[in-house]
Amino acid sequence: MADSTYKCKTPVVMIIFNRADTANAVFEIVRKAQPPKLLLIGDGARQNKPGELEKVLKTREIAQKVDWNCEVLTCFSDENLGCKKRISSGLDWVFSLVDRAIILEDDCKPAATFFRFCDEMLERYKDDERIMMVSGDEQSGAKTPAETSYYFTKHVHIWGWATWARAWQKNDTAMKDWPEINRKKSLEQLFKHKRYNFYWCHYFGILYENRVNSWAGPWVYSVWKESGLSIAPKTNLITNIGFGEDATHTSGKSIYAEMKTQELEFPLVHPKYVLADAQRDELEMKNRCKDDGRLPYPFDMLASLLKWFIIRRILKK
C-alpha cells in the first residue's frame, strides 16, 4: 500500500521545457514525496517559435513553488540546445553534484511508491556494476505479475528512472565506438528477434550520424555496450501524460500512452539471482514490434532511408 507519509531520501531531477501543465502535474507528485534536493534542467526557447519564451518561463516557475525543506538547484539554458545536448549535459551537471538521483521528465507522472522503490533499489545495488539503472516502468505486458517485487531486464526504460553517477559516467553521447561494434555485429546477440535487432542497429546508426536529436538513444546504447541490466518493478509505476501534438518524441498513438499505474507493496521481495527475466523481455519485444509506428519493418526503414537520400541530393543541387 502507498504510504502518504513517506519522504524521498534521494535527490530528484525534473527535466522541463515549455509544458507547464504536464510539468506541474508531475511536480505535485514530487511535492508530496518531499525530496531533500530538487535539481531542475531546462532548455531555452527556440527563436523560430513565437510565444515559446513565455511558455518556457512559465514552466520554470516550478522552482518558486517548493514549500518544503529542500535545496533547489537549477540548470536553465538561455539558448535552445536541443533535446540531446540539453538533457545529456544537464545530467552531466547533476552527477557532478550528487552520487545518485531519481529522474523525471515533465510528462512522466509517478505513482506514490515510485520514490521509495527507487530509494531502496539505489541503496541495495549501489556497488553492483551489473546494474546500470532503476526504472519505474513495467512494459512487458505480462498477464501475471512477477513473483518478486521487481525483476532484471535488458530493456532500458526512461519514463521515470534512477541511476548512479558511477553508471552515468559510462554514458557515451557521441557513440564513438559504434562503427567498430556495428562492424563486429556485437549487439545483434542481445535479443532473439531479428526485427528488433535490425531496428536498434539501424537507429544507432542514424544516432551516430547525428540525424536524430535524442539523448535517450545513446544512453540505451551505452547500457547495452556495458552488458548492463535495468531493474523494473512488477507493477507499472509511471504513466506518460505527454502524448500529443506538443510532444517532442511522443506525438503519435502508442500502446504505452497513459498506462495505468499500481502501487507496490512493501517490504519488497527480492529476486534470488541477478539475471534478466527472459520471459518478460520476450513479451516486451513482441509488444514493441506490435506498437504502431514504433518498430517499422525493414522495408519501411529502407524507404525512409531512400527518401532521406533523395532529399539530401536535391538540397545539394
* Structural classification: alpha/beta
Largest sheet, in brief, is: 8 strands, mixed
Counting DSSP H or I runs of 4 or more residues, the number of helices is 10
Write down the CATH class.
Answer: Alpha Beta
Give the CATH H-level superfamily: Spore Coat Polysaccharide Biosynthesis Protein SpsA, Chain A
What is the average per-residue confidence, as pLDDT, rounded to a whole number? Answer: 89
The portion of residues assigned to helices is 25-40%
pLDDT < 50 runs, ≥5 residues: 292-301
The geometry reads as globular
Radius of gyration: 19 Å
- Distance N to C terminus: 64 Å
User: What percentage of the residues does DSSP assign to strands (E)?
Assistant: 5-15%
Number of strands: 10
**CATH architectural grouping:** Alpha-Beta Complex
Explain briefly what this protein structure is.
The protein is built from ten helices and ten strands.
Produce the secondary structure layout:
Elements: E1 12-16, H1 20-33, E2 37-42, H2 52-59, E3 71-76, H3 83-97, E4 100-105, E5 108-110, H4 114-124, E6 131-135, E7 150-153, E8 161-164, H5 165-168, H6 178-183, H7 194-208, H8 216-225, E9 229-233, E10 238-240, H9 278-290, H10 298-316
Parallel strand pairs: 1-2, 1-4, 2-3, 6-9
Antiparallel strand pairs: 4-8, 5-10, 6-8, 7-9
Helix pairs in contact: 1-2
